[in-house]
């Protein structure tokens, strides 16, 4: 990743060695093999091991690198957190990274102030500026050291900080406000026993974030202690979860516009981990329905703000349209039929949404009714190919006022031939150009693909006169940004490829 350029060669060597030993755990790796892979001498390897073990001892970690003259090296215990913690600790000592951090926190005053604070020369400062500008240049932005500002598209600036400080950095100390225990503590006890003990460290890390958001709790320590008792045996993972929640809360609560906080919920409901964790969804669903609870008020507020600010072309807006509305309103992850979805929406009594944009609210109900008549039922939307006709309709419908141009839609239908015939005869796609693709039909539960080749016509044929759907093209920068965000989505959907620090 680009932030590697902020670290020294020796630090990168330490991280690479830890990752290598962790991958091969519990096997020994010979000195010759490690030296060959790291392109270092045996003497350098020995000194690197000494530095790493000293770091573990200083941090009171139980893990260490075992040494054997004949067998080589191996880790005493395997954990994904070790290399990440070394990475983060070393970043904290990098003046280039601290320069980025001061810009991120809007605390950069002047070059003189920065050099005095970190005891570096002006030459070293400008070297750091050149280093971070090499990173920023890939996003089309630059740091002006005289003015202390970033120049470039605001969406690109936000995307950079989101990618590198939200996903990659979680060990800084942030000033959090204190909250009363009250309902927050009670809810944390309720869900403490619902954590799946078989989740991987990465899954647990993300689940910790999801739970903290649902509780709307800024006091991380009070939240973690009753909730993660089962994780105390893994001290490194415990520290990583705590640091993750600290950092993510600061990012969303302090550094993003208020209405964009709904990206948190987008992340939760779009992640396969949480889709597979039914107890977690059950808790979220129950808390939303408790009209007097803080969770219901918070989610209702987010939904209202999302609709009210849907015209903002921010990085998270694309994700909101794709995930937040499609999963929170439509509830693909939990509802078996659209009848349940109707009832759920009625139970929520989203008066604010109805008052703010009744056309939007009624439009959702209309499209629910139109698709419900087809007898199409949703399944868990873990992968794109798992979406049924209903999911595709709503997914694309929720994107109707965003700046995304869609040229064709691939719609999968159930293998039931009677339902298939109903779809073809239905007014929804009457007189609309489409083709039928029989070539990719490996899944016995899926019928052929219907490919609609005229998207605007397709949506304008929907019996929803209050909507005039179009897909206007936007600037190349925005389209490129959508592409970048989509890449991040796909990375998270594939768990085996998701590595927060890679």
From TrEMBL:
Residues 86-165 form the Mga helix-turn-helix domain. Pfam families: Mga. The keyword Transcription applies. The keyword Transcription applies. Transmembrane segments: none annotated. InterPro entries: BglG_antiterminators (IPR050661), Mga_HTH (IPR007737). Keywords: Transcription, Transcription regulation. PANTHER family: CRYPTIC BETA-GLUCOSIDE BGL OPERON ANTITERMINATOR, LICABCH OPERON REGULATOR-RELATED. This is Helix-turn-helix domain-containing protein. It comes from Carnobacterium maltaromaticum (Carnobacterium piscicola). The lineage of its organism: Bacteria, Bacillati, Bacillota, Bacilli, Lactobacillales.
């Amino acid at each position: 990743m680009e932030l590697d350029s902020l670290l020294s060669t020796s630090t990168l060597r330490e991280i690479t060695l830890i990752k290598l030993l962790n991958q091969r755990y519990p096997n020994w790796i010979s000195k010759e093999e490690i030296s060959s892979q790291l392109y270092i001498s045996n003497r350098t390897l020995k000194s690197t091991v000494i530095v790493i073990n000293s770091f573990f001892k200083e941090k009171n970690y139980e893990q260490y690198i075992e040494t054997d003259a004949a067998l080589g090296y191996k880790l005493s215990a395997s954990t994904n957190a070790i290399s990440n913690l070394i990475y983060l600790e070393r970043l904290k000592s990098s003046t280039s990274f601290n320069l980025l951090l001061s810009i991120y926190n809007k605390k950069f005053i002047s070059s003189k102030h920065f050099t005095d604070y970190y005891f570096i020369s002006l030459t070293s400062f400008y070297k750091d500026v050149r280093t971070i500008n090499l990173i920023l240049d890939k996003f089309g932005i630059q740091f002006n050291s005289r003015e202390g500002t970033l120049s470039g598209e605001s969406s690109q600036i936000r995307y950079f900080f989101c990618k590198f400080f939200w996903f990659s950095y979680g060990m800084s100390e942030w000033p959090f406000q204190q909250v009363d225990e009250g309902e927050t503590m009670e809810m944390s006890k309720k869900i403490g026993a619902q954590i799946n003990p078989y989740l991987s460290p990465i899954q647990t890390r993300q689940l910790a974030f999801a739970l903290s958001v649902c509780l709307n709790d800024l006091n991380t320590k009070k939240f973690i202690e009753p909730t993660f008792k089962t994780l105390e045996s893994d001290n490194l993972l415990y520290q990583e979860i705590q640091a993750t929640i600290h950092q993510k809360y600061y990012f969303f609560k302090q550094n993003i516009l208020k209405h964009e906080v709904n990206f948190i919920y987008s992340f939760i409901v779009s992640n396969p981990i949480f889709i597979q964790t039914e107890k977690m969804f059950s808790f979220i669903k129950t808390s939303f329905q408790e009209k007097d609870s803080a969770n219901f008020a918070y989610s209702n507020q987010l939904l209202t703000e999302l609709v009210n600010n849907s015209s903002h072309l921010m990085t998270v807006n694309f994700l909101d349209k794709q995930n937040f509305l499609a999963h929170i309103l439509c509830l693909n992850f939990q509802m078996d039929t659209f009848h349940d979805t109707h009832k759920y929406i009625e139970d929520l009594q989203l008066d604010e949404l109805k008052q703010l944009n009744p056309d939007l609210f009624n439009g959702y109900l209309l499209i629910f009714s139109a698709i419900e008549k087809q007898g199409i039922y949703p399944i868990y939307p873990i992968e794109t190919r798992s979406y049924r006709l209903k999911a595709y309709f709503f997914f694309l419908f929720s994107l109707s006022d965003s700046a995304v141009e869609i040229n064709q839609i691939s719609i999968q239908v159930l293998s039931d031939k009677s339902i298939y015939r109903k779809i073809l005869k239905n007014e929804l796609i009457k007189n609309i150009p489409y083709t039928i693709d029989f070539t990719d039909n490996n899944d016995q539960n899926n019928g052929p693909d219907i490919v609609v080749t005229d998207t605007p016509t397709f949506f304008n044929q929907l019996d929803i006169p209050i909507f005039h759907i179009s897909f206007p093209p936007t600037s190349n920068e925005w389209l490129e940004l959508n592409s970048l965000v989509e890449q991040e989505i796909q990375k998270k959907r594939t768990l085996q490829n998701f590595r927060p620090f890679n």
